[in-house]
Amino acid sequence: MQQLLGMTLDQLKQVVTGLGMPAFTAKQVADWLYKKKVTSIDDMKNISKVNREKMAADFEIGCVPPSDVKESVDGTKKYLFPVGNGKYIESVYIPDKDRATLCVSSQVGCKMNCLFCNTGKQGFSGQLSPADIINQIQSIPETDKLTNVVFMGMGEPMDNVSNLLQVLDVLTADYGYAWSPKRITVSSVGLIPGLKRFLTESSCHLAISLHSPFADERLGIMPVQKAYPAEEVLDLIRQFDFTGQRRISFEYIVFKGLNDTQEHAAELKRLLHGLPCLINLIRFHTIPGVPLKGANDAEMVNFQNMLLRRGINTTIRHSRGQDIWAACGLLSTMKQNQEAKQQMPKG
């Protein structure tokens, strides 16, 4: 069965005309999918029963409810979605005063193998389809409360850039969610081919995972540095305008005794010179088999002050949901390991 969820208006037109329906039916289908958020083709009541049956013969909506949810004492919720073959992806709902943000995944596992990321330890199992990605947004109870979506979950969005751009079209187009691009932030380690397409074809915000301004040190924790050095990523970013409403930020996990010195602050100032940006300092929470340690609160504030004194706009991201394995990849890894053990032959 093909899935309608995640299709653009042009794709829906191809579907309906291919089934012998008028082209305007595509707009009706889009309205049912993205505004009324139906879960069954039979619910599309302004489309004739005959035409609904035609669609249902080859297509389905593609909505899949989460198989599990963990709720934190701080209100954060981690949703687990099955994606076939015993694999799972995660989405994290983060309520905060007048904001409600959903962190979504773009791949099953990840190829990037960053030292500090548990998702990378799973390896790569496949791309999420546009339906898989939109489903994370549309199949949670809080879907109508969302104010923001961030692509900072499992996987590297720029390694799935065609499907990413299709989803962003659905989220921002009038026929779809009709969201402002300012409500969406996409994170990347800096895959230049996909990043160039994203910067050219979308106006959503960008967050780059940096974590060290020194090439050798960054390579030690992020293998992508070898193929796409941070300096080259920044050269590309500087070709685009971030002086208006579109924002560029840099994600920087602070590792105790590794990347939080005066030398790092000075090199960050040099590396980011002239670029209107924000650095988000992120606490690291230990994951199994990784020797890196997180900085304590005082060390986080100390490094923030080093950057502020150099004129770099810097915030410390508040940790959320630590009691529910909210760090990326932890819950899905646990679930997949449990199912693998259950399937092992006894004796």
Mean pLDDT: 93
Order of helices and strands: EHHHEEEEEEHEHEHEHEHHHEHEHEH
Instruction: Evaluate the radius of gyration.
Output: 21 Å
User: What characteristic shape results from the CA principal axes?
Assistant: elongated
Largest sheet: 10 strands, mixed
Number of helices: 13
> In total, how many beta strands?
14
Query: Helicity, in percent?
Result: 25-40%
Q: State the distance separating the first and last CA atoms.
A: 39 Å
Detail the topology: elements first, then pairings.
Blueprint: E1 2-3, H1 9-18, H2 25-35, H3 49-58, E2 59-60, E3 68-71, E4 77-82, E5 88-96, E6 99-103, E7 107-109, H4 118-121, E8 124-127, H5 130-138, E9 148-151, H6 161-172, E10 184-188, H7 192-201, E11 205-209, H8 215-221, H9 224-227, H10 230-237, E12 248-254, H11 262-271, E13 278-283, H12 297-309, E14 314-316, H13 330-343
